[in-house]
Design goal:
heterodimer; A: about 350 residues; alpha/beta; eight-stranded parallel β-sheet; 10 strands; B: alpha/beta; 11 helices; globular
Chain lengths: ~350, ~230
């Protein structure tokens, strides 16, 4: 079976020759190729070279486009920060004054950082997309304003200024649809969208129902391809009922602290679940620990055809031991076929 | 509003708690100011605001309520404190401390720090807030200038949390560790509690509402904060 066939089996709840798996190894390609991070995340060809090494090392069933959500916000301005062993981040949000925020419209795709994301997707899909899904990672439309304004300002607007909140949601929807259309045109198989401001650990029930879910439903419904809902750093097991009816969402990446059994109970049979290794925690895990962690998850999901072993939270850290990653793969192979 | 007996107070606390959870900032503030008008700001804070904030804090630490609801609670507390100051009422402010707060060098995520400042002020602490992107030397200089025995440093991400090591190094270099204690906080410390020790923190709190208790302990030189 190819990776694409294996992932489609999980999506359809069908048997497969083995469990599909992936780890978020966007940054890790820089380590494997020895490419300076700044070059890796600005030159699409360097990113492709890094992902070739990821495939050679681990042969994951899903590849990721550059996991650099800050590029989406930096297209509007602001200040970036580059560090040796991390993806770049937003040092200062683009807008101190929310009244200064303007939609970029067609200009979004002309931004160098966004252009890099799209071109890296095109290269990745061109080389691997025929037999291995390419997942493009994008900012949730309900989270983009927090990156443009800072969390405090966005929270203040969401809570106390509904008209301005609606204007930002409109900007975000336009941004999301333009960017994701370009990523699908470039060959992305599906999107993974980490969503933070749809969690009742961040927002109130009123905001979730009246503002957040309608925005997500509009954006995901208009997306040109499927959107996998990513937990975004918070547990979502107890929130799944809110997200279950979102259109165009075939699956959910669960938080490493979530119970996959409970998620399956809530979602019912057949809905795709991905998870729930912690990507950042792998840097501290010895190979045998990682193998046991992965094996335990696989044993828990042994009878669940609609499951893909995947890492959650953020990217796998630069300093992670390659043997730890290989131990995860070994656990997958040891678990055998999905019957 | 007439406040008669304990039952009335309990009802008011329930109402205030509900208003906070529903993000009804104006209603909650009006209620507290009405109470203050009748019984004084000190009573409004001691009998109503503080116990409700305590409950909000407990629920927040157990993830029963959201960041937004905690934020609204902080704004309500801030509104009442501002009203108390401008009314020159009976509320005893700045009776503890001072303490110094700031976001560590390269960090511009101010929400947590501002919320900590609000809850510290509501608990009577004098707060010297240095803002974002504060250098290690500026933290320590400010602590010495104001006689602060606790510095609170905020960092949201792992990349900036690493910069807290330089604040610890600055305290060590000036022979102040032990005399000036280092409270650390931010989203990353909830995900990776072991970071508190790794970056040289003396303690942390699970939420902004629990910061006053942490600062009480650190100021007294007592046991370190939750999460350490």
């Amino acid at each position: 079976m190819t990776s694409l066939e294996r992932v489609l089996c999980a999506l359809r709840g069908e048997p497969a020759d083995r469990r599909a798996f992936t780890l978020t190894l966007s940054l890790y390609g820089a380590r494997l190729t020895g490419c300076p991070v700044r070059e890796y995340f600005t030159v699409p060809r360097r990113y492709l070279e890094g992902q070739r090494e990821v495939v050679d090392l681990l042969d994951p069933d899903i590849l990721f486009t550059p996991f650099v959500l800050p590029f989406e916000a930096l297209a509007y301005g602001g200040e970036e920060v580059w560090l040796d062993r991390f993806a770049p981040n937003v040092r200062k949000p683009p807008f101190r004054d929310p009244d200064l925020a303007e939609p970029l419209g067609e200009g979004l795709l002309l931004d160098p950082g966004v252009g890099y994301l799209v071109e890296a997707t095109r290269l990745l899909a061109g080389e691997f997309g025929a037999d291995r899904p390419v997942c493009a990672v994008v900012t949730a439309p309900v989270d983009l304003p927090a990156m443009l304004l800072g969390i405090e300002t966005w929270l203040e607007i969401l809570l106390f200024d509904p008209e301005r909140a609606a204007a930002f949601m409109h900007l975000s929807e336009d941004h999301f649809l333009r960017l994701t259309a370009a990523l699908f045109d470039a060959g992305a198989t599906f999107l993974a969208c980490p969503v933070m401001f749809a969690n009742l650990r961040l927002v109130t029930p009123g905001l979730l129902e009246k503002t957040i879910l309608p925005t997500l439903a509009r954006c995901f419904g208009l997306s040109r391809g499927p959107v996998v809902f990513h937990h975004g750093g918070n547990r979502i097991e107890d929130h799944l009922r809110h997200y279950a009816e979102l259109p165009n969402v075939p699956g959910f990446v669960m938080d490493p602290r979530d119970s996959l059994s409970r998620a399956r109970e809530i979602l019912g049979p057949g809905r795709l679940i991905l998870g729930n290794l912690s990507g950042p925690a792998l840097v501290r895990a010895a190979p045998e620990e990682a193998r046991v962690l992965a094996s335990d998850i696989l044993a828990d999901r042994a009878g669940d055809r609609a499951f893909i072993l995947a890492s959650g939270h953020a990217d796998v850290p630069f300093d992670t031991n390659p043997d730890t990653l290989l131990a995860v793969r070994r656990a997958v192979l040891d678990a055998g076929a999905v019957t | 509003m007439t406040v008669g007996n304990t039952t009335d107070i309990e009802k008011l606390k329930e109402t205030l708690f509900s208003l906070m959870l529903d993000a009804e900032r104006e209603g909650a503030v009006a209620m507290l100011l009405g109470f203050a008008h009748e019984r004084g700001f000190q009573a409004a804070v001691n009998d109503l605001l503080e116990p409700v904030l305590q409950r909000v804090g407990e629920d927040w630490s157990r993830e029963r309520i959201s960041l937004a609801q905690g934020y609204v609670a902080g704004k309500i507390a801030e509104d009442v404190l501002l009203a108390a100051v401008s009314s020159h009422g009976d509320l005893r402010l700045d009776v503890k401390g001072p303490v110094v707060l700031g976001n560590v060098e390269d960090d511009y995520h101010s929400l947590g720090r501002k919320m900590v400042a609000v809850f510290l002020r509501a608990a009577g602490w004098k707060v010297v807030d240095l803002g974002n992107d504060v250098s290690p030397a500026a933290f320590v200089d400010a602590a010495l200038e104001h006689g602060a025995r606790v510095i609170g440093v905020s960092a949201m991400m792992l990349t900036t949390a690493e910069n807290i090591r330089a604040v610890r190094a600055e305290l060590d270099a000036r022979g102040l560790s032990g005399r000036i204690r280092l409270a650390v906080g931010g989203a990353v410390f909830k995900l990776r509690p072991e970071l508190v020790r790794e970056v040289g923190g003396d303690g942390t709190a699970a939420s902004a509402i629990q910061a006053p208790a942490l600062f009480d302990r650190l100021w007294a030189g007592g046991p370190e904060g939750e999460g350490t």
